[in-house]
Write a structure and sequence with these properties.
Elements lengths: L1 H18 L22 H8 L13 H12 L3 H7 L1 E2 L7 H7 L3 E4 L13 H16 L11 E4 L17 H7 L2 H17 L4 E2 L23 H16 L13 E7 L13 E2 L3 H8 L1 H8 L4 E4 L3 E2 L2 E2 L4 H11 L5 E3 L17 H6 L4 E2 L4 H14 L4 H17 L23 H14 L1 E5 L11 E5 L6 H5 L22 H11 L3 E4 L11 E7 L21 H11 L4 E6 L7 H5 L3 E6 L7 H6 L64 E5 L1 E2 L3 E7 L2 E4 L4 E4 L2 E6 L7 E7 L4 E7 L8 H5 L3 E8 L7 E7 L9 E6 L1 H6 L5 E7 H6 L7 E9 L2 E12 L12
Parallel strand pairs: 1-11, 2-3, 3-4, 4-5, 5-7, 6-8, 7-10, 13-14, 13-15, 15-16, 16-17
Antiparallel strand pairs: 8-9, 12-17, 18-19, 18-31, 20-21, 20-25, 22-23, 23-24, 24-31, 25-30, 26-29, 26-31, 27-28, 27-30
The structure holds beta-D-glucopyranose (2 copies).
Length: 856
């Protein structure tokens, strides 16, 4: 061990001189009682030191803390130790499970509430915290009195709790460029979290996004690593307190810098994908948030779902142990992401020695915790995991618990802020959120200085985001995806229209809400609020940055108003910069409002000039639908550069004639299969009859009017046979997993057709249809579906023979299907009698023109 230590110091010092790497200290601290990198430590650490600095972490090793941890550990059993490393989810454990196992921590995922009650009160949250805590310190079954801790995704305020203050998502905060405000927001978040008895927050996300097609772009503060580094420090300080002041005091929670490392740099902006950056770029771009957050003492780091050059981070010993812990000097714990360990090569959700050996300290294992706990214990007994590694992990976990005062604090129900309902959505908290909203707005266009508007005028407020607090708040809002919320789910919150209306009223004007832009009396001006539907994680991944590809409903609304001679102010809600050239052309003024959160009314303060615009673009705004453009690029030609943002006095830079030619290259010209022998991910197969449904999990099923079985076309069970008895409409339906939106707009770019091979076994008494459903944007949100009649094609085919049918996708677009949000790509249905088999359902590129059913 000592030899390693000296080698590190020498290597680091030499390199710091040679390569100019900033090293803040030369003394190597042995932070762990039993380090895990003993074997071969010299080589990797020497390598790590060439790029990664040793951080001067403000929270220092404290011998009294270490002694206390050693004391607790001296009497712990292997079972108790492994239990500290297991983090289940509240939907999958009972208080009795906690009593029996004594988990070191637990979480509530997005959309998980006490008693499964979306409207759980702060008292309900505290009651759950209290009962799980009491069970954890009850030693009657597991012999352990170590307090558990509860972690939650408070990523824009305490966003799982009804009535909490919801701040703009990180992308909007990046636009404010105000680190002091970040610290205030984080402190408020800590207080609202503590009011519900929770100890720990899975924030900040410090991803530095390269490709804005990634569904988590809005969780990123900026494409500029310097801002992310500075913000990370401010947010961690706000959550945890300052190392030399009230560190993890009564008003503070444990923070997590996530997701380590490289989540924002995957190829194609693919969620959970592969980052192929060089090690230097990994540090210079993607790791800067860790430099900021860990220096001020963040106590936990979440491992990322992504890979680095093909190797999943959850199993990456070099990055988790050699770099993060040994070289950078992080002495807190590494928590996994949601079953992230299960994605490591050779692992599954309930078996992953590799992750622990790589340096993961806590498994986030929502539901498969019991088997994982048993497997891990056996793996230690068999020697697949060393006791030294377990001890290191447990020491790290307990070190944080001691630092956070968990052993000395009263139980959750008895802590100073617990149950203080007045903290949730408190007025002074909302004031800070409003300030953040005002500062986050970026003015992209202001033709003839139409803004600020005069509130004494007649104002038409249109667009489906105008009076929709859920839509303006985005994903991670009450539910995981941020969908299924209504304005009633935001007590105390305001929509953008609310603010416009109240200012207009104050100034003697009149604001009329009309989502579709219809009016009786012609308005002086229209404010149109529109944008992306909420999404989270991979559900927000897109092929292009085109806003509303396919249907251009909102553009039509802007144009309709313009055509009537009404000046149009667009307020755009989005989780990322998008290619909106057509919408910009059709707007007199255009405001990028990002995802402002629960305090939408504050938008009006700026539009009506109570305050000037301050926000600056935290991401470069794209000039074309697939442009990957970031500050610092050698060739840098965005539509609007990083840092752009007009104030009222500035002259406009955008014309009304930006190119609207869609020039995109599709990433894949491969056919995309829905059914190819097996049902292909992300699709799942369902049967429907009337209002009954079932998820196909066997080779034969009958439900209502439909019978289903697998049949053989070329190989065993590669086709599906359905018979409809004609008693009611029934269908075989392929749908996305959990019915989330899938962006298949690339299929349109590919000029693909929907093709399938079909065999008719009977006559057809009434129409057989192929349907699609989508979760649309704009005024058809959640409601787009269509069915195309293929009966005549079927009847033209000989009986009991396989033939191909192809349908031009344009036919579905014409019928209102939005390919950016497909939920059902294929549904075969009939209300009549028919017997058919199908196989090989796919989108086939470059086949639209020759399709059997064409709509060009
Ligand atoms: C996300 C994390 C989050 C966790 C718990 C994961 O899917 O990637 O950011 O903290 O879920 O909800
Ligand atoms: C769960 C969420 C969770 C998310 C993390 C979802 O399946 O419903 O609660 O936060 O996974 O990826």
């Amino acid at each position: 061990m000592r030899k390693t230590t000296l080698a590190n110091v020498v290597a680091s010092t030499v390199l710091s001189l040679a390569g100019g790497v900033l090293l803040t200290g030369c003394s190597f601290e042995d932070n762990t009682a039993a380090s895990v990198s003993e074997k071969n430590a010299t080589a990797p650490s020497t390598k790590a030191a060439q790029i990664w600095p040793k951080l001067d972490i403000e929270v220092k090793r404290d011998e009294a803390v270490e002694a206390k941890v050693s004391d607790i550990m001296s009497s712990m059993t292997l079972e108790q130790k492994v239990a500290q490393m297991i983090q289940p989810e509240i939907r999958n454990i009972s208080v009795e499970d906690m009593r029996k196992y004594g988990f070191g921590s637990y979480l509530n995922g997005g959309g998980a509430f006490p008693n499964n009650d979306k409207h759980a009160t702060p008292d309900d949250w505290v009651a759950l915290a209290e009962s799980l805590y009491q069970a954890s310190v009850d030693d009657s079954l597991d012999g352990s009195t170590i307090p558990t801790m509860w972690g939650t995704d408070a990523v824009h305020g305490h966003n799982n709790v009804i009535g909490a203050t919801l701040f703009p998502h990180n992308i909007g905060l990046g636009a404010t460029n105000n680190p002091a405000l970040m610290e205030e927001i984080a402190h408020i978040t800590a207080k609202e979290v503590m009011a519900t008895g929770i100890d720990w927050v899975f924030a900040p996300t410090v991803a530095v996004v390269r490709d804005d097609r990634w569904g988590r772009t809005y969780e990123s503060y900026s494409e500029d690593p310097a801002i992310v580094r500075e913000y990370a420090a401010s947010v961690v300080r706000g959550l945890q307190g300052a190392a030399d002041k009230d560190f993890l005091g009564d008003q503070r929670v444990i923070s997590t810098v996530k997701h380590f490392v490289g989540d924002g740099g995957t190829v194609g902006g693919d969620d959970q994908g592969d980052n192929i950056a060089s090690e230097q770029a990994l540090f210079d771009i993607h790791a800067q948030g860790y430099v900021g957050g860990l220096t001020v003492g963040a106590q936990s780091v979440m491992a990322s779902f992504n890979s680095w050059n093909g190797e999943k981070l959850h199993g990456h010993k070099y990055l988790l142990t050699d770099v993060l812990k040994d070289q950078m000097g992080f002495d807190g714990f590494v928590v996994g992401d949601w079953n992230g360990h299960g994605q490591v090569k050779g692992c599954n959700n309930n078996d992953c020695a590799q992750a622990i050996n790589a340096g993961l300290d806590i498994f986030m294992v929502p539901s498969d915790w019991k088997v994982l706990y048993d497997t891990t214990i056996s793996q230690v007994k068999e020697g697949a995991i060393s006791m030294a590694r377990i001890d290191d992990a447990v020491r790290r976990i307990l070190r944080v618990k001691v630092r956070a005062g968990l052993f000395d604090k009263p139980s959750p129900a008895n802590r100073p802020l617990s149950g203080d309902r007045s903290l949730i959505g408190k007025d002074s908290h909302r004031e800070v959120a409003k300030q953040a909203v005002r500062e986050s707005l970026v003015l992209l266009k202001n033709k003839d200085k139409i803004l600020p508007l005069d509130a004494s005028k007649r104002i038409l407020v249109a667009g489906d985001a105008a009076d929709n607090i859920g839509k303006q708040s985005g994903g991670w809002t009450i539910t995981w995806q941020g969908t299924n919320n209504t304005n009633e789910d935001f007590p105390g919150g305001t929509s953008i229209f609310d603010g416009i209306q109240s200012l207009a009223e104050q100034q003697g004007g009149e604001a009329v809400l009309s989502i579709d832009g219809e009016f009786e009396t012609k308005p002086d001006v229209a404010i149109v609020v529109f944008g992306e539907e909420p999404y989270a994680e991979g559900h927000g991944d897109r092929e292009t940055l085109i806003y509303q590809h396919g249907s251009k409903r909102d553009l039509a609304l802007l144009k309709k108003l313009k055509a009537q001679g009404i000046p149009v102010v667009s307020v755009f809600i989005s989780g990322r910069p998008m290619w909106v050239n057509a919408e910009l052309n059709a707007s007199d003024a255009f405001v990028a409002a990002w995802l402002p959160g629960s305090e939408g009314a504050a938008v009006a303060d700026v539009i009506f000039g109570k305050q000037d615009f301050k926000g600056k673009l935290p991401f470069s705004w794209p000039a074309s639908p697939q442009q990957i453009v970031n500050i610092g690029d050698e060739e840098y030609a965005p539509l609007l550069p990083y840092g752009f943002g007009l104030t009222f006095d500035d002259n406009d830079v955008l014309s009304d004639t930006l190119s609207t030619k869609v020039e995109v290259s599709s990433e894949s010209q491969e056919p995309m299969s829905i059914l190819k022998g097996a049902v292909q991910a992300p699709w799942e197969l369902w049967l429907y009859s009337g209002d009954k449904s079932l998820s196909v999990n066997a080779s034969t099923h009958t439900i209502g009017a439909i019978s289903y079985r697998t049949v053989d076309k070329e190989v065993q069970e590669d086709a599906r046979k359905v018979s409809f008895d004609g008693s009611e409409f029934a269908a075989m339906r392929f749908a996305s997993k959990s019915f989330f939106r899938e962006d298949l707009s690339a299929q349109l770019l590919n000029n693909a057709a929907l093709t399938f091979i079909v065999n008719r076994h009977s006559d057809i008494s009434s129409p057989v249809t192929i349907g699609m459903n989508c979760e649309g944007e704009g005024d058809v949100a959640g409601s787009c579906s269509t069915q195309i009649d293929i009966s005549s094609k079927l009847m033209a085919m000989p009986i009991d023979t396989w033939s191909t049918i192809s349908i031009d996708l344009q036919c579905f677009v014409d019928a209102g299907i939005d390919f950016t949000g497909l939920v059902v790509p294929f549904e075969l249905g009939s209300a009549g009698k028919a017997s058919l088999s199908v196989a090989d359902i796919q989108f086939t590129p470059e086949s639209a023109k020759e399709a059997d059913i064409s709509c060009q």
